[in-house]
Write a structure and sequence with these properties.
The protein is α+β, with helices and mostly antiparallel strands and 453 residues long. It is built from 17 helices and 22 strands. The chain binds adenosine-5'-diphosphate and magnesium ion. The site of magnesium ion has 3 residues, from helix 4.
Length: 453
């Protein structure tokens, strides 16, 4: 069997990385496993593993404070089948042989959530790791902005307060709502998500509150509404800004009275749930325009959090990309991939109007369509490579200055090469394909077309 690492703990938990003979890889808690050559630019501590002729050696780099093998601190030692390597908050199981049928990794406190990776390691499917005691969630990111969100979640989750989650589309509002629910005393009760944008006013009442048999044409049987189904659990009202005014006042009544009436019913039913609402709208503007009830707004805005846009936490992009690469390579049955330096730069400088959702889709596409072990810029969607001309107001000064310096260097090389792309690429020491890509990405095409006689 080809030697491999199975991530037991850390952001890439559940993913499998296959090693090639002679390959040197870097284990890094934030970015997972990458080619050693690629790791120079990835942040955080790392340690190197090199395999030659079936012998594997782990070397902790000078700045790595904590590398442990099977619980003992390690700086330089051989690795054997079944060893568990821990670096920072991440843990990997090193395997060179198939797990015998029925084996159970009882010594590990971590879990495999039936991720599919286990089956890859253990064809009998008998490899089952245990769930760690602490409750976890799927919100990834180590940036200061995400740390603030995580702190907010851990403080607010155990309370029963109503929470309002603000933020652009794709920033993880629903994920945050689920995290609050999973870390609350209601975790074993239902989490009911309702997308208010998909509720036409004519259906909203019956969807939210339910109806009695015969309440209206088509009401062939009694039906419980979503708020009743959520009994004891959490109701997540997504896109609350889209709820029509009529439904807003009925919802407010339920929140005040803690009881609801199904459509066509004569008696109210007591209800008990925690409410979390989310919106990408500016609700204060909606109040001003009379599209949102002020009393409901105050009821919802007890504690609120704003999910940061991805462009406000660019330092999280390599970690998110690595996690999505691991997730989709497992799903697509592909080998683990690494991000090329150029692709990483494209991802980190893109503005991501669709936030994490857009990044996730871009990585899935790269995993499905890419053909090498490295994700290259050409595997990414055009929209990321060919950015609109940079908007100076939005671009940070640093990225703006770097892009401008690149433009100047390229234009000079082209001038020196008399307009020949091939020679200019030669002068710059890059492949002509890379030069073409950079010219598109930096928005130089129009300038070059004009300059041509
Ligand atoms: N911090 C994050 N870590 C990992 N995945 C994320 C994160 N934020 C968003 N996602 C992913 O992006 C997609 C959109 O997230 P979602 O919670 O539906 O966003 P929103 O409700 O703000 O539009 C989902 O697939 C989600 O798993
Ligand atoms: Mg959403």
């Amino acid at each position: 069997m080809r030697p491999r690492f199975l991530a037991l703990a850390g952001p890439l938990r559940g993913s499998v990385y296959l090693l090639a003979d002679g390959q040197e890889v870097s284990l890094c808690p934030e970015a997972g496993i990458t080619f050693a050559a690629e790791s120079a630019s990835s942040a955080g501590a790392s340690c190197l593993v090199r395999g030659v002729a079936g012998e594997y050696t782990l070397t902790a780099s000078a700045n790595t404070t904590l590398a442990h093998v099977n619980g003992a601190a390690a700086t330089n030692r051989g690795l054997r089948h079944g060893d568990v390597v821990r670096v920072g908050g991440a843990e990997w199981l090193f395997l060179t042989e198939k797990m015998p049928a029925g084996s159970h990794l009882a010594w590990s406190e971590t879990l495999c959530q039936d991720c599919g990776a286990c089956q890859a390691v253990c064809p009998t499917g008998s490899l089952r790791l245990r769930r760690p005691a602490e409750t976890r969630h799927e919100l990834l990111g180590n940036s200061a902005a995400m740390q603030r969100v995580n702190e907010f979640i851990s403080r607010v989750a155990p309370t029963d307060s109503t929470v309002l989650i603000l933020g652009e589309s794709g920033t993880g509002k629903e994920l945050a709502a689920r995290a609050i629910h999973r870390n609350s005393r209601r975790a074993e009760q239902p989490f009911v998500a309702i997308n208010c944008a998909a509720l036409p006013p004519s259906l909203a009442e019956s969807e939210l509150f339910g109806h009695e048999k015969g309440a209206f044409t088509g009401a062939l049987a009694q039906k419980k509404g979503k708020l009743e189904v959520a009994a004891g659990g959490t109701v997540f009202l997504d896109e609350i800004g889209e709820l029509d005014l009529g439904s807003q006042s009925k919802l407010l009544r339920v929140l005040q009275e803690r009881e609801l009436e199904r459509v066509g019913a004569t008696r109210p039913i007591p209800v008990e749930f925690r409410l979390i609402a989310a919106t990408n709208q500016n609700l204060e503007q909606a109040l001003g325009a009379g599209r949102f009830r002020q009393d409901l707004y105050y009821r919802l805005n007890v504690v609120s959090v704003r999910m940061p846009a991805l462009r406000e936490r660019r330092e999280d992009i390599p970690l998110l990309a690595a996690c999505f690469m691991a997730r989709y390579s497992v799903k697509c049955g592909r080998r683990s991939l690494a991000l090329s330096n150029q692709a990483r730069e494209c991802l980190v400088t893109h503005d991501w109007p669709g936030n994490v959702r857009e990044l996730e889709n871009a990585i899935e596409r790269a995993v499905v369509l890419g053909s090498s072990e490295l994700v290259l810029p050409e595997d990414l969607p055009e929209s990321i490579l060919e950015r609109a001309p940079p908007d100076q107001a939005l671009c940070s000064r640093y990225h703006g200055a770097v892009a401008e310096a690149k433009r100047q260097v390229i234009l000079q090389a082209l001038e020196q090469a008399g307009g020949s792309y091939k020679d200019a690429a030669g002068l710059l020491g890059i492949h002509p394909n890379n030069l073409h890509r950079l010219i598109s990405k930096l928005g130089l095409r129009p300038a070059l077309k004009k300059a041509r006689p």
